[in-house]
Amino acid sequence: MISYLEGKLKNIYEERLMLLVDGIGYDVLIPTYVMNEIKRTKKLEEPLVLYISFHQTERQPKPNLVGFNNELDKEFFELFISVEDIGPMAAVKALTKPVREIARFIEEKDIKALRQLKGIGERKAEKIVATLKGKVAKYALIPEVILPGEVMEDFRKEVEHVMFTQLGHKVLEARKMIEEAMKRNTKISSSEELFEEVYRGQKK
Predict the structure, then answer these.
(1) What is the mean pLDDT of residues 106-116?
(2) What is d(CA 41, CA 19) in angstroms, rounded to the nearest whole number?
(3) Closest alpha carbon to 140 in 121, 162, 156, 158
C-alpha cells in the first residue's frame, strides 16, 4: 500500500496530477482545495511531496491514490469517507474548501454551508454531521501553516503536542487553552472531547 510519495510534478490535469518518482509516473487524484494550493505554489518539474490515501476494493480493483499536502488533511479525508454513501471519488469532488473550514461546518452543524460542497445535498450533509460531529474539532483548529508532529499517550499531552507541533500554537498558549477547556468541562476523557472543548472556547 502506498502512503507517501516524493517526486517531481510532471503534469496537472483537472482533478489529478502526475507525480514522477524514480522514473515511474503516479496518477494521483487531488481534491480541489489541495489542487488550488499546488497550482499556486508549484511549477511543473518542481519537487512535490504528497501524503497518499490508498483505495482498492474487489469492486474497484484499479487502485485510486488520493494526494494531500499534509498528514492531517489525509486523516480528515479518511474520516470523511467513513460517512455512509460518501466514497473516495465523491469525497475528492466534495472537498472544495480547506479541511479546517469543513471541520468547522461539521462541529457547528452548519448544514447550509456543507450543502455548498460539490455533490453534497441536504441528506448527505445531515449524515456528515451525524457521523462526524465531535470527531473533527482537532481539524477545525488547523491554521494555514502545518508542522509535522507525533502522537503521545496521555490525551492531554497528546492535544498539547498536536496544538504545538501541528497546529502552530505556542506551548504556553496551548497549555492555557487546554487548562481552560478542562475547567469548563471536567468530564473530558479523550483527546477528541478535549479538542472539541478547546474549539468551543475559541468561538466565544
Answers:
(1) 95
(2) 15
(3) 162
* Helix, strand or coil, per DSSP, at residue 55: strand
133 and 151 belong to one structural domain: no
Question: How distant, in Å, are the alpha carbons of 2, 71, 164 from that of 21?
Answer: 12, 19, 32
Element (H, E) at 25: strand 24-29
Task: Give burial (CB, 10 Å; 0-12/13-18/19+) of 61.
Answer: exposed
Give the domain range for residue 107.
Answer: 72-138
Name the domain count of the chain: 3
Angle at the Cα of 150 from the Cα atoms of 165 and 86, rounded to 5 degrees:
95
pTM (whole model) above 0.90 = no
Q: Side chain identity at 137, as an amino acid letter?
A: A
Mean of all residue pLDDT scores within the chain: 88
Q: Please say which residue of 105, 138, 171 terminates a domain.
A: 138
193, three cell numbers: 472531547
